[in-house]
Amino acid sequence: MNSLNKEGEVSGLVLSVIEYKDRDGIVKLAKEDEIVSVFARGIQIPSSKNARLCQPYSKVTLEYDPKYSRDMLYLIKGTLDYSSAHVQDDLEIQTLCQIISQLIEYRGINPAIYRHLEKMWLKFDGSDRNGGFLQAAYLLAELCRKEGIEPYVKSCVECGRTDQIEALDFSAGGLVCKEHRPAQVKPWPKKRMQQLVALIRSKGAHEDYLEDNFNWDAPWILLMLDWISWHLDLQLPSIEFFRTVSHMK
Ligand SMILES: [Zn+2]
Hints:
Helix content is about 40%, strand content about 20%. The protein contains seven helices and seven strands, in the order βββββαααββαααα. The strands form two sheets. It has a five-stranded mixed β-barrel. A two-stranded antiparallel ribbon has the order 6-7. α3 (about 130-145) runs parallel beside α6. The longest helix is centred in the middle third of the chain and has 19 residues, at about 130-145. It is elongated. Bound molecules: zinc ion. Zinc ion (ZN) binds near residues 158, 159, 161, 179 and 180.
């Protein structure tokens, strides 16, 4: 898709926009395999024609001036392919989308993450919470894979046995059996374990099966976010805010 862009043109998903000085803005745009910064002049001015291109959770095609584009692309004009504006109607969903944009900006993107990001926005925009949370879970699982911190789910990570699996142990890096479960890690319900195994093993596929057979919600996303934060040693205040907001539901 991106390879079809002409010289001086780029398509992608708007992750975030920050205001720059009094009039301008900087857009973080996700392409399938990289994130680019776009300098958008004058978008804080009410009459700006380009302001509508600089809204998070939308897909845009932008024309930039190659002459002035080094570290940042210099926006000339563009078209809005779609905007998932309803993401911003729900504080919980909006917070989650912000966290995911932040994680992608920190850690980078690949085509699988791009695909789940786009689908997640569209599902949430259409008020499909279960479908949107599943895409978020896929995306976070893919991020784990990319970072080499995917939970080990084939057997007990300590001894290799496949029966009597009882919980996910963060410090061991995967599932643990009855014998290897530390006392402070509570045993998981069987269904929860099956759901984790299905998510990790699916590698982003079998969407209908995962959507129909399991319930995807904020606690699942928090589990994945906690796993990522723990293993990458990240502390994002927005994750704590998401926890608070989702507990209020
Ligand atoms: Zn074991």
